[in-house]
From TrEMBL:
<dbReference type="GO" id="GO:0008270">
    <property type="term" value="F:zinc ion binding"/>
</dbReference>
<dbReference type="InterPro" id="IPR036291">
    <property type="entry name" value="NAD(P)-bd_dom_sf"/>
</dbReference>
<dbReference type="GO" id="GO:0003960">
    <property type="term" value="F:quinone reductase (NADPH) activity"/>
</dbReference>
<dbReference type="InterPro" id="IPR013149">
    <property type="entry name" value="ADH-like_C"/>
</dbReference>
<dbReference type="GO" id="GO:0035925">
    <property type="term" value="F:mRNA 3'-UTR AU-rich region binding"/>
</dbReference>
<dbReference type="InterPro" id="IPR047618">
    <property type="entry name" value="QOR-like"/>
</dbReference>
<feature type="domain" description="Enoyl reductase (ER)">
    <location>
        <begin position="11"/>
        <end position="322"/>
    </location>
</feature>
<dbReference type="GO" id="GO:0005829">
    <property type="term" value="C:cytosol"/>
</dbReference>
<dbReference type="Pfam" id="PF00107">
    <property type="entry name" value="ADH_zinc_N"/>
</dbReference>
<dbReference type="InterPro" id="IPR011032">
    <property type="entry name" value="GroES-like_sf"/>
</dbReference>
<dbReference type="InterPro" id="IPR002364">
    <property type="entry name" value="Quin_OxRdtase/zeta-crystal_CS"/>
</dbReference>
<keyword id="KW-0521">NADP</keyword>
<dbReference type="InterPro" id="IPR013154">
    <property type="entry name" value="ADH-like_N"/>
</dbReference>
<dbReference type="InterPro" id="IPR020843">
    <property type="entry name" value="ER"/>
</dbReference>
<protein>
    <submittedName>
        <fullName>Quinone oxidoreductase</fullName>
    </submittedName>
</protein>
<dbReference type="Pfam" id="PF08240">
    <property type="entry name" value="ADH_N"/>
</dbReference>
<keyword id="KW-0560">Oxidoreductase</keyword>
Amino acid sequence: MTKAIRIEKNGGPEVMEYVDVDVPPPGPGEVSVRQAACGLNYIDVYFRSGLYKQPLPGGIGMEGAGVVDAVGSGVTHVRPGDRVAYAGHPPGAYAQWRTVPADILVKLPKSIDFDVAAGMMLQGMTVQYLFRRTFRLQGGETILFHAAAGGVGLIACQWARALGVTMIGTVSSDEKAELAKQHGCKHVINYRKENFVERVKEITNGEGVPVVYDSVGKDTFTDSLDCLSPLGMMVSYGSASGPVPPFSLNELASRGSLFITRPSLFSYTAKRNDLEMMAAELFGMVEGGKIDIEVNQRYALQDAAQAHRDLEARKTTGSTILIP
């Protein structure tokens, strides 16, 4: 028996239970992993609350790092003793030990420790696809990125700086504004004090930005559209404040023939070659010193409920991990 967080029903943080579980041996195409650290991400809140559906009872958590214990038949890219990390389906990363599909695992370089890996796989590869694939930044652009002091945001600040991109970021406090600036965000807007649409127009001399990256959802959606220049792209990749309500496509036409996309990491990593490419680029940015992954909060696995409360209250910055 080993310990894991399980949920019997959807709801608040209190529905997560720290329980004994059996870990089955790996079947064909599977690997068992002894986990050293688990990542905490806002997508976990979506699965816990029921915004994203999964069969219940079930596990929770999409990201972890550890050591391969055993492999099933047909698995050739990892073997027992390998250091590995992952961000992928199915949920269940909040665990001491688990069996996972082998195709979500990538080998972890020796230079990257488990805590850092568990705090960067989902968030770091999210920035990779946002900046390098969804709207490919070439350098020289000015962009708007919401939640600039969060886990994804701090990685984005550094990645934008490395690409020669001017990033405008929104945050909820002066302390978070300073943190974003320290990580490379050129212009930081405290949305509790300033109107971010007006500030974006001011910074861009009225032109707006070619792309907005928005993980907030309902509360920022319409204003984000108003920050775009004609033919700009709205990248809505999260719903921290709730899902975006239905809207008319004419809203895009009236603002200058805008584009909109609702991407997810798991679509971008569905092909093994893409996953390996994305992970390699992320590892290279970290090993090259261009991105520093800041694990600013650590909780014991059994304290996952408190970690969720703090995340939803916007008390966290950078990456957060659970220690099994």
